[in-house]
Amino acid sequence: MRKVAIVGTGHTPFTFETEKTSIELFSEAAMDAIHEANLKPKDMQALYLGNCLGDFSEGQAMVQSYAANDIGAFHIPATRFEGACASSSLAIRDAFIWVASGYYDMVLAGGVERAASMGTPLATRTFSMFTDSHYEYPAGLTFPAMFAMLAHLYAKKYGVPLEKLKEQMAQVSVQSHYYGMFNPKGQFHKEITVDDVLNGFMVTSPLQLLDCCPFSDGAAAVVIVSEEKAKEITDKPVYIIGIGQASSGKLSAQKDHLPRLRAREESAKQAYGMAGIGAADIDVCELHDCFSIASLIAAESLGFFEFGTSGEAWEKGETKIGGKIPINVSGGLKSKGHPIGATGASQVAEIYHQLRGECGERQVEGAKIGLTDTLGGDGVLCTLIMQKGW
Amino acid sequence: MEYKLTFKDYAKGLTKGKLLGLKCNSCGNITVPPKMTCQECGGTDLDIVELSKMGKIVTFTVVNVAPEGRQNEVPYIIALVKLDEGPWIMGNLIDIDPARATMDLIDREVKVGFRVFPGDKYSPGNQASPVFSFK
User: Fold this and answer.
1) CATH number of the structural domain A141-213+241-388
2) How much is the pLDDT for B118?
């Protein structure tokens, strides 16, 4: 298997409702990624594109084919990846595998979504399609409701009083909004307080408005190449050194393992194993904070903190720059935004720039190894580990 | 390989007051909702069994923001219940004012009934779904 590097990234602003189409958004991110690598669209041998809800948001399926044509990468094989909110991480993982295998030398991967454009009722309905349509959706299951149930379960299982847990969850959102101030591509640039979170509208108990990430529009893309090509292109390549992906059944089928998601643990194990490292070796992490409680659950399963204790870690600042493990210094899904098909590529772009030392006021100094964790629905997980290549 | 207990038959059972599951003849575990294979061991030697319809609440939430087409249902309670036979199922908790739903609900014993979700333009018509009420 060959070594594989990322040599360029593109990232549109993540926003509320945009007037741009999905193809226009993705093409902007794609051209930026290709130009950052000093390449041309015709150099791309394939396009792997994550997109979940184009069919519903603008009546556009098969966006990958039109997007490839749109940027002038004529006639290349273009494939759509759908793994709910993890879609573009799955696309990047597959791009890695095909380049590592030697079949391709250069692949464009990324994702796009216009979730904000759908409005809350339709977005809530379509996001619910990432649950079991026959056995769980009839009860009215929504995405916030799934994590709300995990929050109550977390409080019970680990013996954390709900009021205490709520304060810890609020601290997650406060930190994300703080770092979000320094991300010009992010959706929010506004600091919030614990009181702001605890006084918010109750979306689905115990999750209040500021425990939840927003609906967002946006796109992100990365150029993935072989080591040989990378050396021709840049003296600062970022290598993908570990990949993982796993899946689970419907939420109820995961029963006693909850609130942990077994797919995350399987996926992380694959990625750490392949990279030959552990959680202690990670310098910077972007994890899937679709809800504040989701961050606590993820950080524990990734091995950063003991189960039931990550709320304390956030409170003590262990997840800030200078702490044990800086988490979501991009602002995370909460502040940066969550255009679901684009989120994984956005996380990878953040780690790429962190490892290259290009993140300005939110830079984690000296970061050499970074990890992304992306969750789709109630059971698609993808873990990617990247390393500074010089 | 034919599906032993389809959604249609499981849902029909609910509407007749029966909670059906699959007992695995390899490991002895019960799988509900039904699947092609045992949720524990992947075994395929399964028999349809009728369950006690009794269990305990393991977690819940009160939903105030509903999906498109279901806004008239809020507020409603979704719960995960661990059945006496072991499996967990999801459904709606009735019998209690959502404003009074607190952590005290966890571990409360409930019995399983059903309601019918009439479906929407994205789903295939009437779908029976579990509801939970106190014993």
Assistant:
1) 3.40.47.10
2) 94
Among residues A303, A281, A301, which one has the least CA distance to residue A367?
A281
Nearest CA in chain A to B124: A134
| pTM, rounded to two decimals | 0.98
Q: Which two tokens stand for residue B118?
A: 């009439």
ipTM field: 0.98
Q: Which fold has domain A4-120+215-238?
A: Peroxisomal Thiolase; Chain A, domain 1 (3.40.47)
**Residue A85 exposed, middle or buried by CB count within 10 Å (0-12, 13-18, 19+):** buried
Confidence of residue B124 (pLDDT cuts 50, 70, 90): confident
Contact partners, residue B110, CB within 8 Å, separation at least 6: B54, B55, B56, B57, B79, B81, B93, B132, B133, B134, B135
Q: Do B68 and A121 touch (CB under 8 A)?
A: yes
A156/B117 CB distance under 8 A: no
Same fold yes or no, A4-120+215-238 and A141-213+241-388: yes
| H-run or E-run covering B78 | strand B76-83
Confidence of residue A176 (pLDDT cuts 50, 70, 90): very high
| Structure token pair of residue A297 | 């659950």
Mutation target for A interface from B9, B65, B81, B89: give the one with most A CBs within 10 A.
Answer: B65
Instruction: Give the pLDDT score at B135.
Output: 80
- Each residue's pLDDT tens digit, A59-81: 999 999 999 999 999 999 999 99
Please state the three-class secondary structure of A264-291 as a single string: HHHHHHHHHHHHCCCHHHCCEEECCCCE
pLDDT digits (tens, 9 = 90+) for A280-337: 999 999 999 999 999 999 999 999 999 999 999 999 999 999 999 999 999 999 999 9
Contacts of B39 in chain A (CB under 8 A): 249, 253
